[in-house]
Design the sequence.
């Protein structure tokens, strides 16, 4: 079993770290909110007071964090991972930050520690809380195949790792997926808004859309939409951040993606209307002008 440091115990990171503990790995965890380490410590993990302390003896260091700025701080900042991670370790960056951040991070890590002393993989995931809890995430890995082989068993405890190319490729694949997810949810909201304008029954609309190309999206989110409750599997505020990354990455590549911009605009509006802590599918309610809440505790 591997010595693993896990930094970031949010809605996804917590259950991912729990999978590693259940698999028998020697896990040290760190979170900016120290109370988030308690259940993991009770299950057999150890808590660290800083990312550097977590990484000090690790063979594999995993970061699962909310934004590019937080990733930079946790890896490169004072008391960050880079200051203490041992030579020969693999740093697995699993946040959704985009390929530019990953490549820049690799260059900075090499400048600090020497070329190849600590290998960086980008390995963002597809799936939300239920898949994280079950260890059934799809993991898109960019970087060297040798580094992936060295930490493959660790990643397999959280899901199915797939090597998709060189450094930054995993992050790029994740943005491609997110561009499609944003478009699908925006399309569903606009389709329902059109039906609303014609006075069509919601249940009939959802039945019809469930057998359309939007079917899988309707099936996953139908209960939320019909009940007007959106407990978060993936928070809308984070979906907004991800669509901004899509638009920015496309513009750097010389592309103006009209559908991505439209999806981003709806998420921006929904977040600014106070839906940021709800599931990202609450953008459907924003588009329709319908109520949306977290639901019962």
Sequence:
């Amino acid at each position: 079993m591997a010595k693993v440091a896990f930094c970031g115990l949010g809605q996804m990171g917590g259950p991912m770290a729990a999978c590693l503990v259940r698999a028998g790995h020697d896990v040290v965890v760190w979170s900016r909110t120290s109370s988030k380490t308690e259940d993991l410590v009770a299950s057999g993990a150890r808590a660290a007071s800083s990312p550097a302390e977590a990484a000090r003896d690790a063979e594999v260091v995993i970061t699962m964090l909310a934004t590019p700025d937080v990733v930079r701080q946790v890896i490169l900042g004072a008391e960050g991972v880079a200051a203490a991670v041992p030579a020969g370790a693999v740093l697995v960056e699993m946040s959704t930050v985009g390929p530019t951040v990953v490549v820049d991070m690799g260059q900075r890590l090499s400048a600090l520690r020497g070329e190849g002393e600590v290998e960086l993989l980008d390995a963002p995931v597809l799936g939300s809380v239920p898949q994280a809890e079950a260890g059934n995430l799809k993991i898109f890995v960019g970087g060297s195949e040798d580094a992936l082989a060295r930490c493959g068993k660790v990643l397999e405890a959280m899901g199915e790792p797939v090597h998709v190319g060189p450094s930054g490729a995993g992050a790029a694949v994740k943005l491609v997926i997110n561009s499609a997810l944003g478009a699908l949810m925006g399309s569903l909201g606009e389709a329902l808004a059109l039906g609303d304008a014609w006075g069509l029954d919601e249940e009939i609309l959802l039945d019809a859309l469930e057998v359309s190309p939007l079917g899988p999206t309707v099936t996953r989110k139908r209960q939320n939409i019909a009940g007007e409750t959106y407990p978060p599997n993936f928070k809308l505020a984070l979906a907004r951040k991800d669509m901004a990354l899509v638009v920015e990455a496309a513009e750097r590549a010389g592309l103006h993606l009209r559908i991505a911009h439209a999806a981003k605009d709806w998420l921006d509006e929904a977040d600014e209307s106070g839906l940021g802590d709800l599931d990202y599918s609450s953008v459907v309610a924003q588009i329709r002008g319908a109520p949306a809440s977290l639901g019962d505790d």
User: Anything to note?
Assistant: The radius of gyration is 20 Å. The chain has two domains: 3-165, 172-288.
